[in-house]
Predict the 3D structure of the following.
Amino acid sequence: MSESGFTPRVFSGIQPSGGLTLGNYLGAMKRFVDMQEEGRFETIYCMVDLHAITVWQDPAALARNTRELCAGFIAAGIDPERSILFNQSQVPEHAQLAWIFNCVARMGWMQRMTQWKDKAGKNRENASLGLFAYPALMAADILIYHATHVPVGEDQKQHVELTRDIAAKFNHDYKVEFFPLCEPVIEGAATRVMSLRDGSKKMSKSDPSDMSRINMTDDADTIAKKIRKARTDPDPLPSEIDGLKDRPEARNLINIYAALSDTTPDKVLAEVGGKQFSEFKPMLSDLAVARLAPISAEMARLMADPAEIDRILTRGAERAREIAAPILRRTYDIVGMVGPAT
Ligand code: TYM
């Protein structure tokens, strides 16, 4: 138990809505591994398939992407024995708690979410109800385990803050101290990896241009080509961080380099300041290939045995339910839902 009375526990999730990008890896997965290795937390990681279907997913592609994402977690270093690794739909308590939170969260809170505004676009009337309620399901993912720490990229910060608001309102309305106020953990050089084509847009699996992102499954030639063609400016690299002001593309490549080499942007600039991009880009490609190739080779090896992946996910879901089921039952008791005594 920590000072707050809650077991230090990490929860995070990734949508199986396409291939894994370098943004997912550096902003999330690599840090999931660090938190597992730290040994200070119980770590729970989830493929959030219920979230994925808030926008249309081809069923065969969803199943394949879920297994591939599981392979990605393991290849990146998540140990399914030391962490709990599973897909969301196998643990029904997520959707059950999400319903309670749909009744706690306010429409106005949801309307302010930037991801909702971005994803629903101009045609809000035609967006799914699930897309609108998405953050309440995310709050349920976290709070069904009483998770205290949530490692995410910058773009998910607002959703984790909303999770705190939902927990606080539930606790207040029912006069309990039942749900923890979880902390977003947004650290490292690559909390917001940007598109290789446009330094003002985040790198995303849903960007129509494949040249905008590095996929974890890209081969060495493709990675080198994408980095070679990445948009930059004509100036040489600066020696200090201030020199990256108003140079979003340069800053992005430096941040990626720093995150891949487990160092800071300052240290990278101390080393590469004064170089032209024509010299720096091949250094970055070599580093990216050296870091990603073993992961993608291991993913391909694991994908050859989908039955083993399914066994890992089912075992992870069983372990997750052992934590989630009693928390759901206690939530129901607090709300006044009649059922077996706890
Ligand atoms: P998703 O699937 O969009 O992304 C998964 C994780 O990757 C991070 N990420 C990035 N980080 C840095 N730079 C980028 N370009 C980049 N792109 C993605 C995201 O911040 C995220 O951490 N709503 C979540 C999934 C989710 C979740 C949860 C997360 C569902 N329930 C509970 C934490 C806790 C999402 O759409 O992530």
Notes: The chain has two domains: 9-191+305-335, 210-301. The longest helix spans residues 306-335. The chain has a mean pLDDT of 96. The first strand starts at residue 9 and ends at 14.
